[in-house]
Design a protein that fits this description.
Number of helices: 1
Number of strands: 8
Order of helices and strands: HEEEEEEEE
Largest sheet: 6 strands, antiparallel
Structural class: mainly beta
Strand content: 35-45%
Length: 96
């Protein structure tokens, strides 16, 4: 597991300033009464041992697919299920 985190750290560190789409482990999250799938898109602002920080970040919600989260968002590596550098943050795709 530690080797995987180190590989992820090195790979993401090389991508600083690039856009990324991240899906986290939770089935759904709740923010201000809005329930949404854990899909985030944004620019990699920082990578530290153990977490990734996106800023600016867009939360992909069904009723607001381009919700700009007002703060940087840090995601622990162990919560990342999948990520892609191929999907731009303004890409429209079905969330349901």
């Amino acid at each position: 597991m530690e080797q995987t985190k180190d590989n992820l750290y090195e790979e993401l560190r090389k991508q600083l300033g690039e856009e990324i789409l991240v899906i986290t482990r939770a089935v759904q999250l709740n923010l201000l009464g809005q329930v949404f799938r854990p899909i985030f898109a944004g620019t990699i602002a920082d990578v530290q041992q153990g977490h990734l920080t996106l800023s600016p970040v867009i939360i992909k919600m069904v009723n607001a697919p381009f919700y700009n989260f007002p703060f940087p968002l840090s995601i622990p590596f162990e919560q990342i299920v999948s990520y892609s550098m191929e999907v731009p943050s303004d890409e429209v795709f079905p969330l349901s």
